[in-house]
Amino acid sequence: MIPLSTRMRPESLEEFFGQQHFLFKDSLLYNSIVNKTFDSAIFFGPSGTGKTTLARIIAKEMDADFYELNAATAGIKELKEIIDKARLKFFGLQKEKTYLYVDEFHRWNKLQQDSLLKALEEGVLRFIGSTTENPYFAVNNAILSRVRSVYEFKRLLPSEIAAILKNAISNKEKGLGRLDFHYEETALEIIAEMSNGDARIALDTLGFICDNISPGGMIDNRIVAEAMQRKTNFYDKSEDKFNLLSALQKSVRGSDPDAAVHYLARLLEGGADIQMIGRRLLVMASEDVGIAYPSAISIVTSCVQASLIVGLPEARIILAEAVILLASCPKSNSAVTAIESALADIRVKEIDDVPLHLKDGHYSGAAARGIQGYKYPHAYGGFVPQQYLPDNLYKEGVKYYKPTENGKEGAFKRFLESLHEQK
């Protein structure tokens, strides 16, 4: 039986879901397809986001010969045969274009990739390569320089996947519209959430359910949990994910690494993706650790990036490292209190102008406007007393940053105090 994801594969731009950041009506890519001026490109991003589908739509719209290879199974022999055919058509009477789509292009070695170069330079082939790896690392520079654009495909939003599922349910020609079954709205939302932005997983999960429930059956949360072999409570109650993220942050803030790792495990087991967890960890590194351990933000950023590269399940180790670090190091919220206090003043106070000596004086006539008198601290050994705040805030003696004695921040506090004594 043909999988539902294959049956429902879009065949036109109008049917294509997602990637609105580069494919929307009147976008350059959209117009190049409609106007038949599309040349060559690299598509990269996670599986199930539409790379192959869009390549096939483009080939169809171009009214050109289209060949499709998978780099995992095809090599130079197959590529040479396609190039030879394309050369005959391009330089022959037909003057026809040929499009070649190579899936998993990163699997080809340098020699295999370079076999495309001459055909691309001559214009014999229009090339689309797709990869789940960053092409700036996985694809030869010589290929990249001959390809017009690199498009990054992002994971589909749950709302986009839910729309795809509903379209499959209602479609009587290719989808499930002729079948007699019912569904709960929340069940589709759970499938969409648990598919991690992969439309193929979502559609094939729905297809598996519909192939194996009794006629007139109901697709509910229990059926979805059975089909995906995962707990669905996390998605059934949308507030759960935010409760767990909140508990994780409060455990980190309270310097309890055991509780923090516990809530990380619950998030991972519930199906939270790396980006969701990573965003919160980056916030914690600045909001809760901050200046007490300034390296935390760099370390956590590296951990989140490494997790995205490695992927789950191994990423759980890297995320745990970041969580334990954050929970175990000194804490300070001075950065968030400083910026919040400054924003509050800007919103409610009439603030004086920037002091004249701080304004840009690199133009003729600046001195005539009174823009002078700035003292360059480096010319005074690194510090010289002068006013930086606007006049009214300076006169009020406003202090936004109030350093603590925690961790590294204690040294910063003592340094600032020593400068204050020189004023």
Q: Overview of this structure, please?
A:
- The chain has 423 residues and is α/β, with parallel strands linked by helices.
- The chain has four domains: 19-152, P-loop containing nucleotide triphosphate hydrolases (Rossmann fold); 158-236, Helicase, Ruva Protein, domain 3; 240-328, Zinc Finger, Delta Prime, domain 3 (Up-down Bundle); 355-420, no CATH class.
- The chain has 21 helices and seven strands.
- It has helices at residues 4-7, 28-34, 51-62, 76-91, 110-114, 117-122, 135-138, 141-146, 158-170, 185-194, 199-211, 221-228, 233-236, 239-253, 257-270, 274-289, 295-310, 315-328, 334-348, 391-396, 409-420, and strands spanning 41-44, 65-70, 98-103, 126-131, 149-152, 182-183, 218-219.
- The protein has a five-stranded parallel β-sheet with strand order 2-3-4-1-5, sandwiched between helices. The protein has a two-stranded parallel sheet with strand order 6-7.
- Helix 14 (239-253) packs parallel to helix 16.
- The radius of gyration is 29 Å and the shape is globular.
